Amino acid sequence: MGYLNLDKKKTTATAKELNILLADYHLYYQKLRNFHWNVVGRNFFDLHIKFEEMYEDAKLKVDEIAERILTLRYQPTSNLSDYLEMSNIKESSGETKDLEMVKILLDDHGKLLKQMRKVVEKADEAGDEGTIDLIGGFIGHIEKISWMLDAWAMKSSDNHPEV
Predict the structure, then answer these.
(1) Domain assignment of residue 96, yes or no
(2) Into how many domains does the chain fold?
(3) Is residue 14 part of a domain?
């Protein structure tokens, strides 16, 4: 790829892992919409607002991932049926309880982080700093949101482990 100074043979693996991450983010986005629409109970106000904030962020990341795939001169996957088949993330019921929603999202964050690290590994092998930089920012953001959701789910009598 002339203008990027990257070897197309080496970026193929990066694009493949990015497409899986794209599928993961689509299912994650839809799950956040589902939880936003269906959360009930005492935590409604906190979680309704937080889930909306999270799905708006996920929507932007979907576009950034697809555009990075295009920048590398590959085709982003764009069919829902393909996303369902490729994704590490599974759909959830709209009848999930609020605390369980948070636990499911934390589990999904682990899956997203694992896939992001695969992308970074392949991008590093290809000398693709642009992808590494993009995904590195995503990793930091998901880690922070995970900490916040985990803290929210803790009992007030819980303490952080001592160093």
Answers:
(1) yes
(2) 1
(3) yes
Query: What CATH number did the domain enclosing 132 receive?
Result: 1.20.1260.10
Residue 159 CA to residue 155 CA, distance in Å, equals 9
pLDDT digits (tens, 9 = 90+) for 31-80: 999 999 999 999 999 999 999 999 999 999 999 999 999 999 999 999 99
Backbone angles phi, psi at 126, to 5 degrees: -95, 0
State pTM to two decimals.
Answer: 0.95
Q: Give the up-direction half-sphere exposure of residue 100: CA atoms within 13 A in the CB hemisphere.
A: 10
Nearest of 89, 85, 105 to residue 97 by alpha carbon: 105
Residue 161 lies in a domain: no
Give me the amino acid identity at 78.
S
Q: Which domain holds residue 35?
A: 6-152
Residue 59's nearest CA partner among 34, 89, 84, 27 is: 27
- Do residues 126 and 71 make contact, with C-beta atoms less than 8 angstroms apart? no
- Closest among 71, 64, 66, 67 to 6, alpha carbons compared: 71
In a domain, 163, yes or no: no
**∠ CA 59-90-97, rounded to 5°:** 90
